[in-house]
Write a structure and sequence with these properties.
By secondary structure, this protein is of the alpha+beta class. Helix content is 33%, strand content 23%. The longest helix has 22 residues.
Length: 151
Amino acid sequence: MMRWLVLLLISLLVAAFVYININNGTPEELGVTNGQFNVCPESPNCVSSLSDISDEQHFVEAISYQVSRPQMQLALEKYLLSTSKYRIVKSELGYLHTEVKSDLIGFIDDVEFYLPKNENVIHIRSASRVGFSDFDVNRNRVRQISAALVK
């Protein structure tokens, strides 16, 4: 009986890792279109400064800055790379897409930054690729980034 339980547990773990690996591919709907990120799904594992302010589950404050846009993007990239958690996927003036991989299971989250012209603000979207809840990991990530940049 115990052997069957161990076998079942191992099978469930393998199935979970296969599921995560299959669904950990880069989403196609990333980027900025007409000044907007893709809308967060209904699940609570995504936050965005471009969500409606009344959407308490998904809305986060944008990050304000006082230097030039290129200087701010460079400072942002420097901070992200200094943490060794972020991998820059795409970087062009005004837009940055990074990936963050969780230590234990290997979940990948996409973190996007949008620095519109003539606005001293960084819009941010942080979303999990897999799962339903993220236990506020994305919201806390945005808080950490904001705190580091608004010194």
